[in-house]
Design goal:
The protein is α/β, with parallel strands linked by helices. Helices cover 34% and strands 15% of the residues. It contains 12 helices and 15 strands. Strand 8 and strand 9 form a beta hairpin.
């Protein structure tokens, strides 16, 4: 007996993309395979997240999944994270133009949770909003509610879908994999009508940089239920789990008073030499600099796991992709102090008041490391100073 087709509810946003026509038998088979895997998670309400680089094909993939799921009899709600960005009228309050600013500030995760994900996760909720602020018209659609059936599947696409702010909501995670250069090329071609000759610069300098920060800091790939190579739209393929990062080598030879700097990006050796030169300009800095390609692409969690046994270390510095590509050569300073190492929740909340990581110019490494090592200052003081900087970078106290 064939299931009766259910409805697909789309966002009221004007930023819409049509359901793509059938591309190939191979693509249809892959969509069916993943849709069946999603349904296997259970008959109740399900939340599916689809992520990947800009122009990887996330929205089209979400639409195709939604059509198959609806055909199988499950009501589907389609949403995109682009419909939950902060309003443009408030952009003077924060940086949304740079790559790092876009990553830190463009999306309103509180709104995503309150309007869409929390209702989706709550069995008592019978409706949710599929759009906050329309990204084109800037109209507020948050009061427009869509019915939530007990067996609804909510399919959400968007960059940064697996950031810590919303990562715990998903029942099934999809990553669409394309090369960074292909992302820039596709994105520039797509947006040339409104961005004109600046389209490529926009994608390379803002979205591309933001995506590299996301990969470095969040490292989402190991948590995916499926990774799909979407380079060829007609012939996508599921990538094997061998893509998961391999164990990193141990960090050794770090003296008691040494700041620890780990290089995780190996795309531009000349940029790295500039970072090293900036570090060595500080005569007071004693540092253990880890320059080993085995650490290429390492995320924050991997670094913290590697140094967890060092009781003398309170902060570690990563020379990642953003370090190499930014004019300020900002290293990522990350606290090694965990919640369990704090006296109580209040103590940890104070430590993490401005986050557990921030950017610092190389000349700030010694000040941060030395003051934290002797408990002369707290991590939150440096993180707060970075937050006050227009580019979000600690530049030493004046």
């Amino acid at each position: 007996m064939t299931a009766q087709r259910a409805d697909v509810h789309h966002s009221p946003s004007t930023w819409q993309q049509p359901v793509p026509p059938a591309a190939s038998v191979e693509r249809a088979a892959l969509i069916e395979e993943i849709a069946r895997a999603i349904l296997a998670r259970g008959p109740g309400r399900l939340l599916v997240g689809i992520d990947g680089f800009t122009a990887a094909g996330k929205t089209s993939f979400g639409h195709e999944l939604a059509e198959w799921l609806a055909g199988a009899g499950r009501p589907v709600l389609r949403a995109t994270l682009d419909d939950f960005k902060k309003p443009w009228k408030d952009r003077h309050l924060y940086d949304r133009e740079s790559g790092e600013g876009y990553y830190r500030n463009a999306y309103d995760y509180e709104s995503v949770r309150r309007l869409l994900l929390d209702p989706g996760r709550s069995p008592e909720a019978d409706s949710c909003a599929l759009c906050g602020i329309d990204p084109l018209t800037q109209l507020d659609h948050s009061a427009q509610r869509t019915p939530l059936a007990p067996d609804a599947v909510i399919v959400v696409d968007g960059v940064f879908a697996f950031r810590p702010e919303i990562d715990d909501y998903w029942d099934y995670r999809v990553w669409l994999d394309v090369d960074a250069e292909l992302s820039v090329r596709r994105g520039a071609e797509r947006d040339v009508d409104w961005a004109g000759s600046e389209a490529e610069t926009l994608h390379r300098g803002r979205y591309g940089v933001a995506q590299r920060i996301y990969l470095d800091e969040v490292d989402p790939l190991p948590r995916m239920d499926v990774v799909v190579d979407n380079t060829d739209f007609a012939r996508p393929r599921v990538l094997p789990r061998s893509r998961r990062p391999q164990p990193r080598p141990p960090v050794t030879g770090c003296g008691e008073f040494d700041a620890l700097v780990i290089r995780t990006d190996y795309a531009d050796d000349s940029a790295w030499q500039a970072v090293r030169a900036a570090l060595t300009e500080d005569p007071d800095l004693s540092a253990r600099i880890v320059d080993d390609p085995a650490w290429a692409g390492a995320g924050v969690d991997e670094v913290l796991a590697a140094v967890a046994g060092d009781e003398d270390l309170s902060v570690v510095f990563l020379a990642d992709r953003t370090t190499m590509t930014s004019a300020h050569r900002g290293l990522l300073a990350v606290t090694t102090t965990t919640r369990d190492e704090c006296d109580d929740e209040e103590d940890y909340a104070r430590l993490a008041e401005f986050g557990t990581r921030f950017r610092t110019i190389p000349a700030g490494v010694h000040s941060i490391h030395a003051n934290l090592s002797i408990a002369n200052m707290g991590f939150e003081e440096f993180a707060g100073a970075a937050q006050d900087d227009p580019e979000g970078v600690f530049r030493n106290f004046t």
